[in-house]
Amino acid sequence: MADANEMGHVYAEVTFLGPSRTETRRLMVDTGALYTWIPASLAESMGIGREELRRFRLATGEIVHRWVGYVTLEVLGKRAPTIIVFADEGTAGLLGMHALEGLLLEVDPARNALKESDAANAYQCSEPPGLEA
What we know:
The chain is mainly beta.
């Protein structure tokens, strides 16, 4: 289920299908964030491995380094693999655009809620010279 609170933020029930266990959390949807962020202890408790250390620019402009891992998640009955960030403890968590696009979900501004996208974004380009079939 996804809904909005009185401040206009959209929240979604997100089920993480980790290698060790499954966990459901209510996360704020953040269309300004690329990846989904959850506390590192939650990711570790589900058996999600730390795959790569990446740089992130916070809203304050500060650059931080955080580990990322991979997990399948489910929102509104749709499942897809996605990248999660091992966030600091005390982080409430958020659902980012990479997961939303993988699930073919988007924010409906009229209802201030999540909805299914009518189609995935695709880009058409001509093939570079020499690659024609």
